[in-house]
Amino acid sequence: MCIAQFFQNVPDVIWSGIIASVLTLSGVLISNRSNTTRLTLQLTHDREEKAKERTSGMRREVYLKATEELVKLNAFLGSLLQQDITKSNLGEGFVGFQSASARLQLVAEPKTTLLAMRLSSAYGELFIELMQHLMVLGKAKSDIQIADDLYIKANNEVQRVLSAMSQQNETGKPDQQVFDALQRSFAFGQEQTSKYSAARSEGWESFKMGNGAFVRHLLSRLRDIAPQQMKLMVEIRRDLALLGDLSEVEAEMHKQLVRMEEKLNQFLQSVESTNEMV
Q: Residue 212: which residues within 8 A CB-CB, separation 6 or more?
C-alpha cells in the first residue's frame, strides 16, 4: 500500500483531531512566545527603572550636599577678613565645596557637569585672588603690631626718664650733668614715640585700604559668579526631574540676580564713598 492510499484510508474524524491538535499547539507556542517577549520587555523596563531610581537617589544626595557646601563656601569667603592666615589653614574652608563638586561631576548629566566644573574653577580663582589680598592685610597687621610694641617700649622709656627728672628736681640740688643726660634721653624717647606712632598710623591706613579692596573684590567677583550659580541650579532641577516650569524658575532666579546686583552695586558705591571721605 502506498503512502497516498494510507492517508486516504485515515478517517476524517482522525484528521479533524490531528488538525485541531496542531492548531492548538501552534496557538500555545505563539502565546508562549508572546508572553516570553512581553516578560523580557517588562524585566528590561523594570531594570531600567530601578537603575534610574538608584541614579536619581544618588544624584539627589550629591546635589543637596553640593548646594549645602556652596552656601558654606560663600559664608566662609565673607569671614576671611576675620581669619589669621598665620594661625589657621584657610584651605580647609574651601575643600568641602571642592569635594562636593567633584562628586557632583561624577554623577551629573554632561551639561550639569560642565557647569559645575566652571563654577568650581571660578571659585578656585577667586580664592587665590582673595589670598593675595589677605597677604597684604597680614603684612599690614604685622607692621601695626611691631610699631605698636616699639611705641609702647619707647613711651615707657619716656615715662621712666620723666620720673628720673622729677626725682632730680625734688632733691633740691639736681646734678646738672645728670639732668642734661636725662633731657637728651627724653628728647630721643619722644622722637622714637613719634616715629613709631607714625609707623603705626601708616599700618592702619594700609590695613584700611586693603580691607576695602578685599570687600570690593569679593563682592564684585561674587556678582560675576552669580549667573553661573543660577545656571547650575536650573540644570540640577532638570536632572532631578523636579516638578515645575524650569523656564519660569530660571526667570525668577534671573530677577533675584538682578536685584542682588543692584544691592551689591549700591554697597560697593558706599564703600568707595567712605574710602574717599576718610
A: 271, 274, 275
Task: Read off the amino acid at residue 41.
Answer: L
Reported as a single tens digit per residue, the pLDDT across 138-195 is 889 989 999 999 999 999 998 998 888 888 777 777 778 887 888 888 899 899 999 9
C-alpha cell at 34: 508572546
Provide the pLDDT for residue 209: 87
How confident is the model over 185-206, as a mean pLDDT?
91
Q: How far apart are CA 142 and CA 87, in angstroms?
A: 13
**CA-CA distance, 197 to 213, in Å (whole number)?**
24
DSSP letters of 201-267?
HHHHHHHHHHHHHHHHHHHHHHHHHHHHHHHHHHHHHHHTT-SS-HHHHHHHHHHHHHHHHHHHHHH
Q: Which of 16-20, 33-37, 142-146, 232-236 has the highest mean pLDDT?
A: 142-146
Residue 85 backbone dihedrals phi, psi, to 5 degrees: -65, -15
Q: No. of H helices and E strands in the chain?
A: 6, 0
Torsion angle, alpha carbons of 159, 145, 217, 99, to 10: -150
User: CA end-to-end span of the chain, whole Å?
Assistant: 128
Instruction: Report the range out of 55-64, 67-76, 175-184 with the highest average pLDDT.
Output: 67-76
C-alpha cell at position 239? 536632572
Distance of CA 123 to the CA centre of its chain: 6
